[in-house]
Model the fold of this input.
Amino acid sequence: MRNRENLIPVYYRLAEDIKKIIESGVLKDGDLIPTEAQLCEQYAISRMTVRQGLALLAEAGLIETVRGKGSFVTRPRLNQLVIDLNHNATSKEQIRYTLLGVNLIRNNGEFAEKLGFTGEANVITIKRLMFKGNLPVAIEEKFLRYQKGKPLLETQLEYADFPEVVAKHQESVPVRNDMRIFVAALSAEQANLLAAEGSQPALGIKQLIYSEDDKLLGVATMICHKDRFELKATSYPLSGRL
Done:
């Protein structure tokens, strides 16, 4: 019978071993970890396999590789927090969406300019309501530059995450997602959709997605019920996968 160790890829075991050494304090911030050649010899594996393990450590924020010098331990940046909107509010299985509407606003340069879409006059708007169980949790509004010949599928409109929608609908490749968090009072329409009292405070989350040349491709705003949505963030998030 194969044991767990035999089922785990060698590069993953290498990454786990180095992670344990770093987190035990044996290797400290700025310390040079063993070279690729040394790790190849120690684990009896190929250089490619070693590089796969080092890539996992770099993705987890545990090391930084400097070409020509080697890989160095990096201290976790605890003041840098990562928010994963897919795993906020509740587990993904408990979330459901109702699509409220999709519209194409044509020839309205003033509206597009207000959103930040410079040089654009046609904007696609998507609105949906997020539920946790039977309770409405948040209202999402998405705004995209109109791209002729790039239709949006119904499944994308109702279920896809905003960055995915932007990536599939735009010709430019999205490379940056800026987020702004704010507090706002619910409008009468928003209060009605969220089954809440009018003018009560709500958490607002705004996403702005840009291309490599700093062109704004999409804007999304989520207004969340104050008692039904909890925004979570963590530092050093990817190290937990090792």
About this structure: The helical segments are 4-7, 10-23, 36-43, 47-59, 109-115, 154-159, 162-169, 188-193. The mean pLDDT is 84. The chain has two domains: 4-73, 85-224.
